[in-house]
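Repro:
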Amino acid sequence: MRDQSTRPTRRGVLFGGAAVAAGALATACTSNNEKDDPAPAAQTGALGGDNDKPGKQVTIGFSAPAADHGWTAAIAKNAEAQAKRYKDVTFKPVQPTNDINQQISAVESLISEKVNVLVMLPNDGEQLNQVARKAMDAGIPVINLDRVFPDKLSYRTWIGGDNYGMGVSAGHYIGKKLKTKGVSNPVIVEIQGIATLPLTQERSKGFADALKSYGYSVTAKQDAKFTVETGNQVASNLLQAHKKIDALWNHDDDQGVGVLAAIKQSGRKEFFMVGGAGSANAMREIKAGNGVLEATVTYPPTMAASAVRLARLLAQGKGMADLVELEPPQSVTLASETVTRDNVSRYLPLGFES
């Protein structure tokens, strides 16, 4: 989820903000009814409609980075769980790796096996662009997951999250609450992922733009490298530097484990916090309601489940049930939803473990 220099605005699963239309992926989404059973279907989408009836047997190849981060691990789990729901799908994942050359070799093996469709989350879109193009040239449609390939001829469909939208969602939550409380000149702290990455810069810009609409701005920000350890260190430093804080936005719930640990150790409770990505542990913290974390904004790893569904439709020559067009769209941008104590029960089954 994290480290790709060319990827477009980027963890929801409710395709309300999808580029194609509000209901475009309705058949790929789980129900929002709290009375529904949130068992495995909540993670992979409830089957239903003509598109989900058994069709032509297809083989879907899958390649992703190593599961060394909660969000990345959830990507692989969502893809595999979705594929298992179809009797007409053979799922062929290759060994996950953070080594560019190993991922290239793994994808080349899938091309040699002539899979029908390839779902691919590249370690780096630019460096994996050529092998994706090789698949496309071989007649294998590529579903480009999250980290975009620079050459549009290297993928059939891109699906991913909205980084700028994450910042906007966090900014509106913080701005509205502070404005309602009548706070002027608030101290607003931002803990980024990796400051040099475009995805981080997009999140920060969305955050700043949303805060500006309330007359606010970020007081201090520092990056925490998407790790628990650095999140803990950065949060400790910011807490020491600012004796009073009104609000804090942390870009990533995985590094947020360290951020929350530092806050709890400090005993500080005068501010509220918004997380980012939508991890299950963050949602449980929100649901408990006894800490500073009040909300998180999603960047759903369930995009991998939707990518598998799109791959199956492409291989079977089907369109999307709620669209007039005969084939799936070229790109789908997922909405960044705001999860609070009021709606956390709906989102918790979709959360990933950090």
